[in-house]
From TrEMBL, chains A, B:
It comes from the Bacteria. A divalent metal cation binds at E141, D172, Q198, E246. Mg(2+) binds at H429, H503, E579. It catalyses: 3-dehydroshikimate = 3,4-dihydroxybenzoate + H2O. Keywords: Lyase, Metal-binding. Its cofactor is a divalent metal cation. Catalyzes the conversion of 3-dehydroshikimate to protocatechuate (3,4-dihydroxybenzoate), a common intermediate of quinate and shikimate degradation pathways. This is 3-dehydroshikimate dehydratase. Belongs to the bacterial two-domain DSD family.
Amino acid sequence: MTLTPTRHDKTIATVCLSGTLDDKLVAAAHAGFDGIELFEPDLVSSTSSPAEVRKRCEELGLDIVLYQPFRDLDSTDPAQFERNLVRLDRKFDVMAELGVDLILVCSNASADAVADMDDLATQLRAAGELAERRGMRIAYEALAWGRRIDLWQQSWDAVRRADHAAVGLCLDSFHILSRSSTITELGEVPGDKIFFLQLADAPHKDMDVLQWSRHYRLFPGEGAFDLVEFTAAVLGAGYRGPLSLEVFNDVFRQSAPVRTAIDAVRSLGALEAGLDDALPRQRFEAAFVEMSVTPTNLASAEHALSALGFTQSATHRSKRVTAWTQSDATILVTVTTDAPEDDSSAIAAIAFDAEDPTGFAASAEGLNVSALPRVVRPGEADLPAVAAPDGVSIFFVSTAGDDLDWRRDFEPVPPTDVATSAGITGIDHVSVTAPYDRYDECVLFYRSVLGMRTDEVAEYPGPYGLVRSHLLRAPHPSGFGVALDGPLLRRGKWTPGVQTPQHIAFLTDDILGTLSALPADAPVLRIPDNYYVDLQARLDLTDEFVNRIRRLNVLYDRNADGEYLHAYTTVIGSQVYFEIVERRGDYRGRPLADAPVRMAAHVAARRGMART
Amino acid sequence: MTLTPTRHDKTIATVCLSGTLDDKLVAAAHAGFDGIELFEPDLVSSTSSPAEVRKRCEELGLDIVLYQPFRDLDSTDPAQFERNLVRLDRKFDVMAELGVDLILVCSNASADAVADMDDLATQLRAAGELAERRGMRIAYEALAWGRRIDLWQQSWDAVRRADHAAVGLCLDSFHILSRSSTITELGEVPGDKIFFLQLADAPHKDMDVLQWSRHYRLFPGEGAFDLVEFTAAVLGAGYRGPLSLEVFNDVFRQSAPVRTAIDAVRSLGALEAGLDDALPRQRFEAAFVEMSVTPTNLASAEHALSALGFTQSATHRSKRVTAWTQSDATILVTVTTDAPEDDSSAIAAIAFDAEDPTGFAASAEGLNVSALPRVVRPGEADLPAVAAPDGVSIFFVSTAGDDLDWRRDFEPVPPTDVATSAGITGIDHVSVTAPYDRYDECVLFYRSVLGMRTDEVAEYPGPYGLVRSHLLRAPHPSGFGVALDGPLLRRGKWTPGVQTPQHIAFLTDDILGTLSALPADAPVLRIPDNYYVDLQARLDLTDEFVNRIRRLNVLYDRNADGEYLHAYTTVIGSQVYFEIVERRGDYRGRPLADAPVRMAAHVAARRGMART
């Protein structure tokens, strides 16, 4: 990528946001967008006239850059085409009042669509002549489900043949990438014929492309498409208009619009950074994970850590925080009295030991992530921190002995000579429940602010409903993971499980040794016998091995790349538990088929029904 | 249909219900199921041993009729097939402990699936021999996404060739109807070779069949398949086992299981009634719709009705209820002081004037719909009533002057000589918001208890999210409609709109006359000018016509069958409003593209921003 850093105008289609038109305009302006695409139904249902909308946008500092969509322009029936031109002319009236000169015309999806490319070009040219007379321009777009024109190359062919100054292309990343179209031919398109660029990401879905487009689009960086490569190609072809988002998403349609708009502008900021090759590339390791507990949960948290072989290694100089360490794993336990519920425990923070902690924080701020205010006492380290959308605080720290070395605030506890290690070597990942409305925002946050990469996207059934899971990992060599889990559908009143489970997964090189070394009162989660009976039926395992892991309550999975052995503790307080993991070979992701077993076991443990 | 009424055993797969295995068993027993299909993952994650599950089922009066599923039995690799037989044998161990002798083996969906029909039959026969030695039987099922076997006819070919007493068919309505397979050849299958029948309905979806099956299945009578025809064909072929539900549904997976189980058993009751041709076939008309208002809303409700041309025709002899009438439309207005919120208004009841009101109520009770308890004073009519799952009470009444004539409880108000009619002739439909977890249950209720038919299923965008809509209508000549509207996704905290809108749509033969006749202070909802500008651009309408409907705030739609003109009132209290409808020609359904305009106009009216 050799583009010089350019600041592009950022715009958003009103359909991306929830609310009335005014709600949407306020949200877009608040988030810092330069302008909007006006989605026609938002205007039609608005009580404000086009002139009033224009004035409102001016007040808010928003350009109206596109009016959209205009459907079914071409027709095999000449009389119908004439009526369509009249309809277009009426829309030009509205656009003149709005002060916008560009309209999106999408390829005809009806039975009436024109198939002959010369006829289509002739009709486009006639529309271009009308537009020119009105001082307007037409951006023609191939819908992925267009009847005759469903590839961008066809839309370009039509525009090229129409050969009219007022007729150009609209390129939409979804319509192109959902069809796996090549974009190499973009080099043949003169930059000034690309009138508009709409950007949307999407998850992989094996479904009808129209439904996929209308319900599941995401902001760039939240899905599975490579928007950086795509946008670079369009810019490389000479496009100089705004980077504009057009995202139809069922969740965004009903989420608070200001929050969605901030997420949206962050996605374009991250895309720009990607274009400039300026996304964070720092190596970082987890310095610590901070767990908050209420005074009533402190003893069980300390008992669990201690039983798992952790040693209290330091205490905070001024706060009620203790550090527990085992090899490369450090857990801070903070006693809090302002928990939302009395019995609450939570993963409060993750601290990353980075080469340039302040640089990390600065680039986060550049992505519209607010720095967290902190109360720092004289002499204490003022650690840069930001809030992840999942509610976890992210600290950027050093272990270089400088001002950002978090250890400065702690007083070491003299080591005892009792060897307590259970063989835990570090932290594999942290799993948090992403809030339903912010799931995709969380994915973008970890990808853009921390430069993490998706390792696995999956869905699995729990006793109380389906769960979606997205595992992100830090760049090598750290590989530190954050797993976002959350209900596939927003939960209702029937929610007997742990609402927002969180856990810390510790690594060991020898889980059987680790589990064997634990004291008898370690709060290991009891796994039902049925699991082992099924495991042995499914996999070719020796009786000896199965009996051994059964005694230790270790779960097991195997795939072509390797093996994954793991065990859990019971839940500490209301939502946090620990996992101990041994990976053998190159097993990636997590053994999600074990998740329902773990969940049901946690339910049984909570109900006191576990047969111990 | 000439089957004699037979009472079939009713069973349900545990995967249909939310919760741990014990939650599911309790719910199935409570709803009155005779037995269960045990879904293997529910057993694997259970802390109860198979023997304990068997005992628990015995306590609850539940038979375990099927163990399922067993996947990937056949293999192109003989050594792998041998291992698969060992795996099967281990499952037989578990089944012996459970006390179940039938296992579902589904067609192989992996790359290893056997294509040659003779080879497959040989392997099935080998499995049958193993089963016979263990006293077990195998029900072989074609998955709609099986690699080699994906049609029931192929599975029957394999079973026929396997030619083993312990190997029979499992027929699953979803796998068959989703593929639009014919079932006429079922007559060739000996009844005793159909070992099991799984029933599931589903909505029409244009998507990957695996995803459709795993997320969107419904109970019979809730979707778009004809389960009565299908089941009759299977019974006609001689199948004598239970009617068993296997429904994978994202919402049911996370809804209270007792409620879901009752819905499920109702679906089988309605299916049996359909098989016996015993579903309600009565003609009925809407006698009245009852609206409850708080004392503070009474005046605005009365004002609205009065302004729309209704006359107070009667008052209740003992309660604070007044009847308002115009031609065939009667609205009861009940003042309530126990509304959930102070400002609440609601559609409390719909009364149907039926030939045999008590027969209606009795068949409802046969479908596990509880009768509503009523406080009846001496001399008052004791009207049979049931609760619809959407919270509306359904009364079955007469107008024959007998004990069930609801008018007995009312004292007529002497008519005044002022002619007030605005030309409203009756009630077209009532629209209610179906609770998210009970949407499909509502559909089944109106179809099975009242014999209503689906007129239109659709989705439309509102300012605060997507809405799904299902319009049901009574048999001719009444055609009375109930529209179930509800959010496509469960709403979160951003919910500035009316949460659970409800409305009553009145019919007129001349909406322009009706609207023109209304007094100046009638609470007609102001429709924005933008709507009319767009309407005129879209449709070939004269300026005169558009100006006229614009002045009257009438919305307009046209399709190939006819026209639909309609207007709305503002919201009375917190959630109820009225619609006035004129249908021209054979326009079916509702003009849902107008819905977002109506919603935004209601928001504007509520915010006092309407430009009047």
